Amino acid sequence: METKNSDNLLPISETLFIPLVARATETIRDNPILSDNKSVEILKTMNLKDKITDGGQISTLGILARTKIIDDELGHFLSRNANATIINLGAGLDTRITRMDNGLLKWYDLDLPDVIRFRRQFFYENERVQFLSISVLDTAWTEQINVSENSMVIIIAEGLLMYFTKEEVSQILALLSRRFPGAHMFFDIVHSYFINKKISSTFLWGINQAKDIEKLNSNIELIQSWSAGNLLKDRQPLILKILNFLPSTKNRSQILHIQFK
Asked: Which of 28, 89, 148, 253 has minimal CB crowding within 10 Å?
């Protein structure tokens, strides 16, 4: 079996292997939280000897929780809006399209050029699935999104926004609210306590309460939020269950569902 080459990826992109490994490892467990055979398939073709593949137990639980929640929520939307337009920001090696494709939706995967080049080794474009090789901060990418009449827009930014500054996050959300009014968006955030602390990665932005997201843009409405401390409790170690009494630990990671007015 041919081994895929990941040597040309920039350092900023190397964290993309952590969620891939987390999903693949979970898939082959007994009674897995989620099933992601595409991640297992990709992992078999790669030599990750010198790559970062493990963010630690807490990070892994967060990845699994956000993947399952976003899968479930997106599934609910697609059951009612089969021809939705999905914009996947910071796609990395995300495999959600293989679990969600209903043959009708439109799907855009956006990431930096080196990541999209690597992604092309495992995924293919067609008339409904397209890749955008561009930074999310470059406003030009929004002009490449073709939204059909009566098509709901759903934006996903999984494991992405915490790597930008507050000013950059505000810029991204402002762009999305202008270009896609009425769109729904799912993304995860970290608690501000973890900003500029080297955990598995260095985070640049975070908020304490989910409702605080509305302060970044007047066109944002918080629809729902999920706190990591309340998710997958049976998999959390005892010390973490105890520390979940602290807001910074309970809300160490949150998944948000917002809508642009």
From this structure: 148
